[in-house]
Write a structure and sequence with these properties.
By secondary structure, the protein is mostly beta strands. The protein is built from 2 helices and 10 strands; from the N terminus they run βββαβββββββα. Helices cover 9% and strands 29% of the residues.
């Protein structure tokens, strides 16, 4: 369990939002090939929310049946991966990167390490890109940001009333 009793999150564009009112269980990083493809990344961080404590608060995800057992939920507008779901289970897995506060959930395990990238252990040794001395590019991007903020909003996009 994470120790954090309520988590909110959603997709990048804000069309799909959710809330998990109970603690998240088994926060882990999955390296299986299906999770790599679903995330478009080398791994997918996930944690389980009990269905009784989980609700969609805005919109509805699109679903892709990635195997006979598992379906993957994502935003049909922006494509953000959101859920790993086994419909018969009493929990639904949430992608940790879609949480409003992802830093509050630390993975405790790695799974399916047979598909982990062979060079994964060397990532901490990569050189760090220097921070720019002037924040011009960062300010330009921030001023034109269309991403949903990391908190619930009454209306989205901002200014819309329906």
């Amino acid at each position: 369990m994470t120790g954090v009793a309520k988590q909110t999150g959603g997709c990048q564009c804000g069309a799909v939002r959710y809330r998990a009112s109970g603690e998240l269980g088994y926060p882990h990083i999955c390296h299986c090939r299906m999770c790599q493809k679903a995330a478009g990344n080398y791994f997918l961080p996930l944690a389980a929310a009990m269905r009784k404590d989980f609700e969609l608060t805005r919109g509805a995800p699109k679903w892709f049946q990635s195997s006979d057992l598992v379906r993957r939920g994502f935003c049909g507008d922006c494509g953000t991966p959101l859920f790993y779901d086994i419909p018969e289970a009493d929990f639904i897995n949430i992608t940790l990167g879609s949480l409003d506060e992802p830093d509050t959930v630390k993975p405790v395990m790695q799974s399916n390490t047979g598909r982990r990238m062979s060079w994964f252990h060397a990532l901490d040794g990569l050189p760090l890109e220097p921070q720019p001395e002037t924040p011009d590019r960062e300010n330009t991007i921030a001023a034109s940001n269309h991403q949903h903020p990391d908190h619930d909003t009454q209306n989205w996009p901002l200014g819309e009333t329906s």
